[in-house]
């Protein structure tokens, strides 16, 4: 700090008596250093350097102490000469004004006029009262410095209060002061305070806004009159949603967005399809009349769950708009949308989200109540899941299902509190003020573009009808619905406003209504800018993947020479890269495996399967909570430099684009991460997308995704998806948790060749299964029971010839040289138990028992198994299904009907395994081993004489 400035401080009115004023300046400096003049900025910075530990301790920090010292050292002490500056009282008043401004920025939203129904009393916020800060009516016409407010340098207190009330307690309530990034806060302040949080619209823009509200209301009235009593989940009460989405599409297109992925639940979905996306009214009417079935869907779904895609003309060119399908588990679509957006970004080579925009529309009760919302927010800035920021729109009808009391639906004042975890700004806006809604939409879109971060619009409105049109909401909410019935629609309110302003004539609004209805009667597309038959270069052609079959023959082999070449490339490390000794041992073992000097393990086979796919032009994406290394230290796809902590991923070096291979150690989420990967796989058929559970039972946390998307997405929505799930499974005495991946649940969901359930028992089988998943044209989810102890089992190995000349075997016959004529009993099994059976049979030197592995439980290989049982082992009279899982779990009950079709009339089919149990496994190791010994003995049976 310059001596001249310090001397001027001691001479001026800014002495120790005015510490409050200086503290207020310092608070502004802490919020934004650029908001104070340069000499003050330098002064505060110098003071901080004196004692950094006390920088933000305002009451007892260096600022107060410095000014008290200035006051004591001043020749005039605590007096101020007239004409040299403000006196002590004036300085205190100035400080109070700055605190009042700050209070409105922080808490003004609590007094904002955002609820059109005025259902809740405004909370008491003393900070917003000038008297709280020591300001009186006598101060109203006194000019004050406006500090960091984006306004003239000096205004009267009356003008300052009017400004901050208009900006922060008008129809928009802004929450952004929780953001720690100063640049973001100052950007928002400028965008709010300079225009006084108001849209500057021309007469034509106002008319266009009224037309969109007319469309939003018009489709609802039309459907209500034409299809009386049918469910449509009306948008009435929240019609401003349509201009919001229109503005997002048009502004996004002008910003360079080429694709927008939209996720929403039921409320207003049909309205959005017609008025924003350009769906043909004729098509919608056919759905209401039960005459329309979407292509490539079998059972189909109700019309307000269906997805749709279209192209909209914008100032920046055509924008592809994709609405994700959505089940009744309302918020579960969130991660699916994000995954789809990420896949599209990858296709565009877009690392920031400048060309792809995800938009999520939430319900108020669902956003506050469902955990997947938090999990999806947690994904937003995480590596591998980043999508450049999502625009969130809450259609806040303040009632949820039938409950309007927030005390029953959440523990927070707002339903949007969860968004603060990622420091997203939140703009609460009155849904009956269309111009305020439009202003907030523009602000949100520009913020997302500027900072590539999430932003939330909380559209506070109401629901004119019940949860559905047959519901009677006034039975449970009589007072709320008394207000709603007496309230004109937002279109009527805005039309009256424009008529009063002279923007439209007396009959113009009715003319707009008639024109819109006439267009619906003529079954014309009514969405502005909708393009028909547009040849969109950004979309993926899925036609090669339709009408394929699961047993399509495909060559998955890779020559030994190619395997060795790939492994040589994977062995190459950056100069000076120092491996952990255990990892170095793994790498050395893989070198020997490629040379044929060591039996191949699972980690080697898996890595080479990915390497071959990458070399052939496919991409691979693998996520899970410990996928880089592998939960069981078997994969080691990401190598860590023991010297400096840097990383190296050998598979990334096989292609010109390192992003062709992605492996991510994901956050501790199953539901959101699996949803993200499902969404990714539905948008990219050329990438092997894999989600790996840390243990198979962790998939329990994502059951909604499995039931409502993975198992049934194609049947309901005609949506193909090649996602693979790796679920470690096997009984090793670890107790009820981490033993079972719940095979029975997946098998129960199997029908119509909807998914694949595989239990590979050798590294080569795993290799061929991975390659088959991508080299076939069949794009169905693959559920794999992956091994744990088998990863290093001495018998569970393969040789190079198994990769170069083999294929994925649905059924593996006994390889141990048994003679079919001597076999009296055939034991069928899957997975790890095979090796327990094999070791015990060898110990007993049995020749009368054949062990047959079923490697694919669905689609069940009846033809292959029948051929073995009815031809090769036709003399055997006993066929036993052996499993580790309890009888009521595992594959037995779900596969019994398949097994019964494969045995001869003379063969008796029986079960060997654990007794039925409510728990997946016992918790005591000794009991586990005894159960395992007994089930193996039961399966092998007595020695035949």
UniProtKB/TrEMBL annotation:
Span of domain Transketolase-like pyrimidine-binding: 600-793
Cofactor(s) required for function per UniProt: thiamine diphosphate
Pfam annotation, one family: OxoGdeHyase_C
EC class name: oxidoreductase
Enzyme Commission numbers on file: 1.2.4.2
Gene3D superfamilies named in the record: 3.40.50.12470, 3.40.50.970, Multifunctional 2-oxoglutarate metabolism enzyme, C-terminal domain, TPP helical domain
SMART domains named in the record: Transket_pyr
Transmembrane segments: none
Keywords from the UniProt entry: Oxidoreductase, Thiamine pyrophosphate
Protein name: oxoglutarate dehydrogenase (succinyl-transferring)
Biological role: E1 component of the 2-oxoglutarate dehydrogenase (OGDH) complex which catalyzes the decarboxylation of 2-oxoglutarate, the first step in the conversion of 2-oxoglutarate to succinyl-CoA and CO(2).
Family matches, as InterPro entries: 2-oxogl_dehyd_N, 2oxoglutarate_DH_E1, DH_E1, KGD_C_sf, ODO-1/KGD_C, THDP-binding, Transketolase-like_Pyr-bd
Similarity comment: Belongs to the alpha-ketoglutarate dehydrogenase family.
MF annotations from Gene Ontology: oxoglutarate dehydrogenase (succinyl-transferring) activity
């Amino acid at each position: 700090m310059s001596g001249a400035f310090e001397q001027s401080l001691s001479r001026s009115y800014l002495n120790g008596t005015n510490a409050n004023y200086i503290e207020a300046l310092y608070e502004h400096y802490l919020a934004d250093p650029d908001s104070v003049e340069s000499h003050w900025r330098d002064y505060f910075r110098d003071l901080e350097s004196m004692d950094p530990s006390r920088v933000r301790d305002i009451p007892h920090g260096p600022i107060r102490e410095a000014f008290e010292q200035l006051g004591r050292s001043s020749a005039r002490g605590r007096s101020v000469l007239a004409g040299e500056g403000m006196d002590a009282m004036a300085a205190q008043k100035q400080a109070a004004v700055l605190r009042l401004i700050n209070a409105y920025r922080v808490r003004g939203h609590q007094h904002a006029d955002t609820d059109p129904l005025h259902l809740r009393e405004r909370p008491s916020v003393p900070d917003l009262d000038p008297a709280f800060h020591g300001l009186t009516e006598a101060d109203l016409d006194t000019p004050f410095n406006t500090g960091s407010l984006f306004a003239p340098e000096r205004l009267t207190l009356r003008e300052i209060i009017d400004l901050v009330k208009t900006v922060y307690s008008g129809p928009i309530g802004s929450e952004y002061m929780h953001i720690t990034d100063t640049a973001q806060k100052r950007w928002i302040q400028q965008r709010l305070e300079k225009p006084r949080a108001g849209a500057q619209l021309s007469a034509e823009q106002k008319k266009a806004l009224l037309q969109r509200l007319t469309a939003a209301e018009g489709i609802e009235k039309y459907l209500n009159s034409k299809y009386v009593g049918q469910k449509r989940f009306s948008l009435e009460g929240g019609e401003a949603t349509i201009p919001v989405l229109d503005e997002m599409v048009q502004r996004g297109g002008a910003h360079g967005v080429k694709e927008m992925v939209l996720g929403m639940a039921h409320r207003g979905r049909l309205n959005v399809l017609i008025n924003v996306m350009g769906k043909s009214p004729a098509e919608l009417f056919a759905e209401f009349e039960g005459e329309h079935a979407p292509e490539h869907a079998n059972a189909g779904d109700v019309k307000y769950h269906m997805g749709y895609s279209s192209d909209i003309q914008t100032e920046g060119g055509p924008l592809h708009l994709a609405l994700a399908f959505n089940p009744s588990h309302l918020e579960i679509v969130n991660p699916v949308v994000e995954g789809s957006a990420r896949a599209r970004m990858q296709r565009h080579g877009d690392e920031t989200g400048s060309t792809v925009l995800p938009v999520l529309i939430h319900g108020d009760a669902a956003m506050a109540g469902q955990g997947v919302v938090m999990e999806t927010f947690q994904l937003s800035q995480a590596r591998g899941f980043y999508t450049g920021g999502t625009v969130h729109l809450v259609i806040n009808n303040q009632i949820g299902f039938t409950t309007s009391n927030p005390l029953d639906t959440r523990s927070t004042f707002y339903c949007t509190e969860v968004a603060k975890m990622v420091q997203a700004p939140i703009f609460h806006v009155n849904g009956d003020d269309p111009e305020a809604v439009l202003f907030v939409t523009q602000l949100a879109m520009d913020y997302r573009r500027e900072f590539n971060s999430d932003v939330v619009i909380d559209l506070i409105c109401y629901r004119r009808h019940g949860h559905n049109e047959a519901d009677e909401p006034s039975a449970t909410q009589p007072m709320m619905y008394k207000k709603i019935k007496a309230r004109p629609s937002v279109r009527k309110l805005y039309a009256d406003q424009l008529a009063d302003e002279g923007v439209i004539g007396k009959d113009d609004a009715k003319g707009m209504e008639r024109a819109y209805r006439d267009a619906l009667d003529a079954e014309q597309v009514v969405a502005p800018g909708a393009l028909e038959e547009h040849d969109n270069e950004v979309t993926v052609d899925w036609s090669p993947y339709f009408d394929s079959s699961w047993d399509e023959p495909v060559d998955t082999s890779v020559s030994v020479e190619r395997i060795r070449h790939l492994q040589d490339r994977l062995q190459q490390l950056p100069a000076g890269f120092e491996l952990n000794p255990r990892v170095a041992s793994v790498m050395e073992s893989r070198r020997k495996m490629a040379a044929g000097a060591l039996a191949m393990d699972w980690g080697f086979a898996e890595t080479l399967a990915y390497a071959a796919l990458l070399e052939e032009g496919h991409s691979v994406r693998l996520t899970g909570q410990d996928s880089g290394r592998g939960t069981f230290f078997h994969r080691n796809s990401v190598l860590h430099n023991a010297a400096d902590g840097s990383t190296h991923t050998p598979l990334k070096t096989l292609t010109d684009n390192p992003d062709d291979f992605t492996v991510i150690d994901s956050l501790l989420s199953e539901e959101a991460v699996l949803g993200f990967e499902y969404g990714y796989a539905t948008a990219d058929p050329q990438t092997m997308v894999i989600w790996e559970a840390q243990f198979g039972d962790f998939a329990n946390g994502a059951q909604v995704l499995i039931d409502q998307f993975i198992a049934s997405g194609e049947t309901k929505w005609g949506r193909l998806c090649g996602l693979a799930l790796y679920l470690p499974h096997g009984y090793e005495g670890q107790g009820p948790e981490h033993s079972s991946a719940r095979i029975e649940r997946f098998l129960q969901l199997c029908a119509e060749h909807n998914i694949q359930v595989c239990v590979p028992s050798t590294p080569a089988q795993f290799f061929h299964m991975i390659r088959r998943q991508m080299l076939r044209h069949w794009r169905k989810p693959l559920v794999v029971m992956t091994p744990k102890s088998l990863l290093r089992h001495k018998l569970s190995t393969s040789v190079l010839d198994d990769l170069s000349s083999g294929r994925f075997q649905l059924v593996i016959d006994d390889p141990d040289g048994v003679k079919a004529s001597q076999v009296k009993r055939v034991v069928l099994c899957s997975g790890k138990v095979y090796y327990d059976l094999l070791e015990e049979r060898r110990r007993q030197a049995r020749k009368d028992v054949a062990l047959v592995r079923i490697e694919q439980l669905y689609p069940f290989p009846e033809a292959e198994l029948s051929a073995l049982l009815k031809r090769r082992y036709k003399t055997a009279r006993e066929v036993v299904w052996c499993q580790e899982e309890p009888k009521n779990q595992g594959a037995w009950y779900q596969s019994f009907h398949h097994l019964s079709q494969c045995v001869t009339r003379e063969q008796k089919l029986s079960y060997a395994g654990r007794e039925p149990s409510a728990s997946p496994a016992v918790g005591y190791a000794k009991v586990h081993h005894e159960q395992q010994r007994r089930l193996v003995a039961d399966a092998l049976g007595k020695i035949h004489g």
